[in-house]
Amino acid sequence: MNIRLEMNDWFYNAGLIGFLRIMEKYQKDAIIIQDSHIEFNTDSLKEFHKYYFQYLFDIYDIAKTMDKKMEKSFDIIKQYLEIESEDKKVLAETKEKLKREKKYVKDNIKKQIDKIKKFDQETEKEMLEQYSKIDSIKEKEQIEELKDIFNKIKQCLYKYHINTKLTANLFKSILSNKYFGQPSFLNVVKNSASYEEQMNLMYRDYVSNIIEIGYLKDFIDQKYNLEDLKEHIENLSPKLVTKETFKIYTDINKKYIEKGKQIDEIKEHIKKDVFKVCYLCADEHCITSNYSESNFLPMAVSSDNMKNFFWNQKVNYPICDMCKLIMFCIPMGLTTITKVIRENQKYEEKDILSFVNYDTSIKNLLITNNNFSIKSKKDRYLESPYADLLINIVEQEKDISKWQLENIFVVEIEAEYLAYSRLEYFHITRPVAIFFKEYADKSLMKIKDYKLKIQMVDSIMKNKDTKYVIDNKIRDVIKNEYGGYETFLASKTRMQIKLIQEGEKNMEEMEKQNKKLMALYSIGSEIHEGLKEKGTENKLDGYVYKMLNCVKTGNKKEFMDNVIRLHMALGKDISPIFLDVMKEEQFDFATIGHSFLSGLASNKFENKTTNTNESIDE
Q1: Are 510 and 499 in contact (CB under 8 A)?
Q2: Residues 376 and 410: beta-carbon distance below 8 Å
Q3: How many other C-beta atoms can be found within 10 angstroms of the C-beta atom of residue 261?
Q4: I need a surface site. Which of 32, 48, 294, 338 has the fewest CB within 10 A?
Q5: What is the H or E stretch that residue 3 is in?
Q6: End-to-end CA distance of the chain
Q7: pTM for this one?
Q8: How far apart are CA 48 and CA 199, in angstroms?
Q9: How many CA atoms lie within 13 A of 450 on its CB side?
C-alpha cells in the first residue's frame, strides 16, 4: 500500500524529519519527497524497527564512546609518564595530574563494570582484573603494559552481547525519560530481553499494524485474492502482531472465510468494522489507538488517569499507527543545543531539545534542521546555533521573504517522565528578521564571548530586552577587567534592533548612530586610562556599579552627576557628543549608559586593539 504523509503541526513535522533521517540513512530510494509531503510503500517499513535501533546504536554506541575516552586518557597518561625533570615541583604536579587522569578513566570504566555485573559476571571478572592493574602503572617503561590493559578492557566492551545491552539500555533510558514514558520495549520489565527481542517488540507495537493495514487495503484494491488472504492468516505469528490485529484476522477467518462468505462481504466488513478515522492525519483506512503520554510525553497526559482534565471527561483522541510511528521518530528530528543560564551569579550550561519549523518545503525543512544540528554539535562553544540557523536559512533560500523569516517557529523542550514537562515557543519578529539579514554581521556576530552571544540571541529570539544581559555582563567585566568591547557590541546590537522596531531601516542613518555609540565607548575608555595614569583607578569599580544601578533604575540625574565628577577628576570638559546624545530621542538611556560604561569598565589593552578602529570605519 502506498502512503502519503503531509506536513502538519511542528511536532508532527519533527517526527517527519526524524523518519526521513532514518530512511535516508538505510533505505533512501524508498522515499519520494515532494514539496509538502512524502510518499512510500508500506513494504519498505518491514525492516524499520532494525533501522530505528541501528540509528540510535550508532549515536550512543558505548564501546566506541569508551574507546575514545580511553584513547584520550592513554595519550594523557603517556605524556605524563614521559615527563623528566629535576624540578621537584614539576614532578609533584605531574604526579598529581597523573593521579587525577587515572581516577577519571577508572571511574568511567567502573561505571560500565557495575552495569555488566548484572548480566555477565564472567566478563565483569575479566574487566576487574585489568581495572585493578591501572594504579600500578607509574613508570615510562610501563606504557605498553597500560596499552595492553586498555585493549583488553575494550575487547570486553566490544563483545556483541555486552555492547548491545549497554547501548540499548542507554538509549532506552533517554527515550523513556524525555519522550515516551514506558510503552512497549521501553518498559523496564523488558530490560532482561535480548537486543533482537526488543527490536521485535518495536516491530509488533509500532510497525506491524501499518504493514497489516497495508495488506488489507491492498486486498480491498484486489491486489490479493481470497486464497492469498487465507494463506496470509495461516502464516500469521501472534508474536509479531498486536492482539487487536490478530483478533481482526481471527474474526475474518471464523466469521467469513470458514463460513464461505463472499469476498465482497469480507471487504465490506473491513471497511465498516475494521477501518477507523485518525484524528491527526484524517486517514480513514487505519487501526487507531488513543493518543496519550506514551505517544509524546511533552505534549500529552495520561488521559485515562486524568479524565477531569477533559471536557465531559471524553478522553478519546484516536490516532493511526502511522502517526504513532512518526511521533516515535520525534527524538531523531530534534536537535540538542547548549543554553547558557545565569543563576546565583554563575553561568551554567544546560542541554535543551529544539526544533525549527517554518513555511517551506519538506526538503528545505530537512536541510535547515540538519544544518542546525550540525552547527550545534560542531561549534557549540563558539557560536550561537540560532544565529547561524537564520543565516543558513537566508543563504539556503536566497529569495526568502521577510514574511517567511517572520514565520520561523522555534520550540524548546525539556521533559522528564513522571516529573515535569516544559515547552517554550518563539518565532522571529519582523525587526529581528531584518536585523539578522542586514545588520547582525556588524554587531552581534562580532561578539567573541560565546556565552554572551548565546544569551543575547536567546533574548532576541524570545523578544526580551537584552539590557539585563548587558548589565550582568558589564558587572562581570568589572571583575575580570576584560570584555568591555564585547558589551559595547551587545549595546550596539540592542540599539540596532530598537531602531528597526521604531521604523528606522536606512543603513546610512544607522551608521551615524553607531558612530555616536562608539564615541561614548571611547570617552569611557579614555577616562579609564586617565584614572589609571593618575593612579586612582581603584575608584573605577565604585563608579561603574553606581552608574549601572542608575541605568537600572532610570536615574539620569545621578548618572550625569557621576559623569561630571569623572570628567572633573581628570580636569576635562564634558564632551559635547555626550550631551547631544543624551538629548536625542533615538537613544534610550540604557543604550547610552551601557555604551559609556562598557568603555569605562574595559582595560587599557583592550582600548588599544583594532576593534575600536574597525568599528568606526564600518
Answers
A1: yes
A2: no
A3: 15
A4: 32
A5: strand 2-6
A6: 61
A7: 0.78
A8: 10
A9: 15
What nine digits make up the cell of 405? 523569516
Instruction: Provide the pLDDT for residue 161.
Output: 95
484 close to 601: Cβ distance less than 8 angstroms: yes
Q: Find the range with the poorest average confidence among 166-180, 189-203, 300-314, 325-339.
A: 300-314
For 158, how many CA atoms within 13 A lie in the half-sphere containing its CB?
9
Q: What are the CA-CA distances from residue 489 to residues 353, 374, 503, 599 (Å)?
A: 29, 27, 21, 11
> Over the stretch 563-608, which tens digit does the pLDDT of each residue have?
999 999 888 888 887 777 777 666 788 999 999 999 998 764 454 4
H-helix or E-strand spanning residue 37: strand 37-41
CA count, 13 A, side-chain hemisphere, 390: 33
Mean pLDDT within 92-105: 94
Tell me the CA distances in angstroms from 547 to 457, 474, 588, 596, one per residue in order.
26, 11, 15, 10
**φ, ψ at 296 (rounded to 5°):** -170, 100
CA quadruple 485, 489, 495, 499: dihedral positive or negative? positive
State the cell numbers at 426: 518563539
- pLDDT given for residue 617 in this prediction: 35
- Cβ atoms 283, 6 nearer than 8 A: no
Q: Cα(416)–Cα(392) distance, rounded to whole angstroms?
A: 32
Write down the pLDDT at residue 419. 74
What's the maximum distance between 2 C-alpha atoms anywhere in the chain?
110
Q: Which three cell numbers mark 367? A: 536541510
Phi, psi of 291 (to 5 degrees): -70, 130
| Continuous segment of H or E residues that includes residue 39 | strand 37-41
Q: Determine the Cα–Cα distance for residues 78 and 480; give it in Å rounded to an integer.
A: 35
Query: What is residue 196's three-state secondary structure?
Result: helix
**Strand extents, DSSP E, 253-360:** 288-290, 318-320, 335-343, 346-357
- Dist CA 26 CA 53 (whole Å): 12
> In this predicted structure, what is the pLDDT of residue 469?
92
Q: Which pLDDT belongs to residue 398?
A: 52
